[in-house]
Model the fold of this input.
Amino acid sequence: MNPGFLVELTVLILAAFLGVQVISKVPTLLHTPLMSGTNAIHGIVLVGAIIVAGIPGQPTWLRVVTLTAVALGTANVVGGFVVTDRMLEMFKPKKKREAAAEEEAKAE
Amino acid sequence: MSRTDWIYLAYLVTIVCFILALQFLSHPARARNGNLIGAFGMAVAIVATFFTPHLTNYASILIVMAITAPVGAYAARAVKMTAMPEMVALFNGVGGGAAALVALADFHHAIPEPGRLDYNESVSIVLSALIGAVSFAGSLIAFAKLRELIGGRPITYPGQQIVNMGLLAALVALGGVIVFGPQKEILLTVIILGALAFGVLFVLPIGGADMPVVISLLNAFTGVAAAATGFVLHQNVLIVSGMLVGASGSLLTLMMARSMGRSVSNVFFGAFGQLQTAEEGGISAEGGTVRSASAEDVAVMLAYADRVIIVPGYGLAVAQAQHAVRELADELEKRGVEVKYAIHPVAGRMPGHMNVLLAEANVPYDQLVEMDDINPEFERTDVALVIGANDVTNPDARSNRASPIFGMPILNVDQAQNVVVLKRSMRPGFAGVDNPLYTLPNTQMLFGDARESVVKLVAAVKAL
Done:
């Protein structure tokens, strides 16, 4: 077993504890946006997809596989962050919301 | 510093951004900034990756990204607020699919001409292919169920659990062959195909009402698959980000299941929401009589009440009635009626979904009361107005042991002096169980589209 693997394993375990720790106090009302936000973050797999797609000398079938991975990863990243942003747009601070309500009333 | 060092430094920035993003996402006021920080971190990682030494095919990679990015953004922008959960499922699925494909490509490049892969690499490849493919197929089924492309009810057959377990065992065994035996690409392809089948079979028997929990679990799966990919490519940014999602997603799954009053194993293996047989007892909806009321009757009842609690559910969201409901509440408040909203933790289709929908209609935040705080107030309430909510108001969950939703925490709507239920028809709710609330003597039904009914109520209250 190479020493690099043990370092990677250490990093993995620490990240697991950190992941539990940072969201342990999230209120119910943020469960959905949080799920959506973490969903966007695992789009980091796009980085892996770009790396394998950029390896020189691939047969055609593999080129199709890796470019499909790039496409799926891109959709995950872009869609994930945009959906989350749309959800969170709704959680405006009270003052802003009142202002928005007034604007809406005027428009009507 | 070498070019690779700079890239790793950029990845470190990404990791810090993601951790901050998660932390900020846990607070309502800062959540939106958190998401932006996460997006920034992602952009840094993507740009840095293009500087990877010996990278080729720039043109095709960039073209593919340039085509997919607007499609993803458009899909995310165009989707209605009510359809958010299925969109999350879809984006989660494609991420899982990407992880599985990356594993397949890794495997092709990593198999050394003679000799074998290190165990850590072969195990990681198998894991990311397996978990990624399960997440992909499972998420698509979850998407189809929420979109009602296929029925929300659980699809079951005898011996289902045995078939699923058998398939999973076979896949794990096949993974063992890759790790210890001949390292053939065809084996990994078979694992991916088998994992796709398992993903479908795993989610099919789970009822539509439980989809949020399933999506949350598959979200964690995709995170773990991404982390496994990191082990193959030796990229810490993938390991850390993937595992952050894997861990937080698992915790979130537990929290969601808890807020529904169910254990995780019950959700995944309980085949929840099958039709109850009549012999099982409890109060049957067929036994009592349903009383239907007119909008005018209900308007009078509401206008002369002291306290009204509105119980919004998914039906309200589907009918886009949230703005009309706010108008009704404003009208009642003008007449000195105290109006509150009772928010069940899983109202809508996901925890927190209803808060988002009502916030969209500018309902003041302090009028939204969570279940535990509002339940004692129903006894002192003149009218409980249930709009498009069903299962979360079902008294069977409290009293009928035979009910499949027994034990789920509910809003004690039945304890109010009067209950008015706005509902399209007598069809059972998403969980597929009858609701005896509708036949209680203090309950009246107002049938019709939720938005039209509320608009009628507003007009009737104004006319008084």
